[in-house]
Design brief:
Keywords: Cell membrane, Membrane, Transmembrane, Transmembrane helix, Transport
Membrane topology: Multi-pass membrane protein
Radius of gyration: 28 Å
Number of strands: 0
Strand content: under 5%
Helix content: over 70%
Shape: flat
Number of helices: 12
Oligomer: single chain
Pfam families: BPD_transp_1
Protein name: ABC transporter permease
Mean pLDDT: 81
InterPro entries: MetI-like (IPR000515), MetI-like_sf (IPR035906)
Low-confidence stretches: 1-6, 18-24, 286-290
């Protein structure tokens, strides 16, 4: 009768090691996993705290004159008063949001549609590339008189300016995204007998979305940057005119509170777009994580 015994290492022999199963990861403590999940928020909070502390220190020590850079606690107090019910700053937020979001949505829609068209039809790209390069290189400040001539000094000119600023980042990113779809995907779809409409809707557009969104988020930033300049042209209400009138009347704390509100709006819009992007491109994240 033959028996088999488990081999035991003798003195001087290395002990056998057990390799982890494919795809297995070392056990991570719960607190460390949670920290890794929310680390961007923690680091962001630390960064904001350091900036506010440096701001306060510069004004408290006299490195920067408080007449020109109001201490943070004074700005926050003025911000709270301005955004309270009936506050003067609160009344200026909605007009700016209405103009900024209207121009952003119009510019984004036009940028996506025309970008898909130009990116899909190479003849259009070659024909209009010099013209598009010319207009893309123009400063929006140089075009203010043109917008005023066509749309007047009312709401339409301000929305048109914001639309122009938001259009170009989306348009450029869309053209490049459509052109950059991998040939192997297109060839595979054609090999399987897919038609042009199917390839465009099921291959080109889904593959382009992840590369379009950076332009959309950049467009949101450009839109509200242009909005402030547009409101300087003669608006009677809005955050831009609030900042300008506060500066002219030497209400420096109010001026900085308006700037803070613009920053909050920009960050909030960016976070919303990032959430939409994550939701729409979740399929890509699943593929890249495999």
């Amino acid at each position: 009768m033959v028996t088999t015994e488990a081999a035991t290492p003798t003195a001087g022999q290395p002990r056998p090691t057990v390799e982890p199963a494919p795809g297995a990861s070392p056990r991570t403590p719960l607190w460390r996993a949670r920290l890794a999940k929310y680390d961007q928020y923690l680091y962001g909070a630390v960064g904001i705290t350091l900036v506010v502390f440096a701001w306060w220190s510069a004004t408290a020590t006299g490195v920067l004159d408080p007449k020109f850079l109001t201490p943070p606690h004074t700005v926050l107090s003025k911000l709270a008063d301005g955004l309270a019910a009936g506050g003067d700053l609160r009344q200026q937020v909605w007009p700016s949001l209405r103009r900024g979001l209207s121009g952003f949505l119009i510019g984004t829609g036009l940028g996506v549609v025309l970008g898909i068209l130009v990116g899909s039809v190479r003849v259009l790209e070659k024909a209009f590339d010099p013209v598009l390069l010319f207009f893309r290189s123009l400063s929006i400040l140089a075009l203010f008189p043109v917008f005023l001539l066509f749309f007047g000094i009312g709401e339409q000119s301000k929305v048109a300016i914001v639309t122009w600023a938001a259009f170009w980042p989306v348009f450029i990113s869309t053209v490049n995204a459509v052109k950059g779809v991998e040939k192997i995907l297109l060839n595979a779809a054609r090999t399987l007998g897919a038609g042009r409409v199917y390839i465009f809707t099921r291959v080109v557009l889904p593959a382009s979305v992840p590369n379009i969104f950076p332009g959309v988020r950049l467009a949101a930033s450009y839109a509200f940057t242009a909005l402030v300049a547009a409101e300087y042209l003669g608006a009677t209400e809005g955050i831009g005119i609030y900042i300008r009138s506060s500066q002219e009347s030497y209400q420096i704390a109010a001026m900085y509170s308006g700037i803070v509100v613009l920053g909050i709006i920009g960050v909030t819009l960016n976070l919303l777009l990032a959430g939409v992007e994550k939701r729409l491109t979740a399929w890509q994240l699943g593929l890249t994580n495999k």
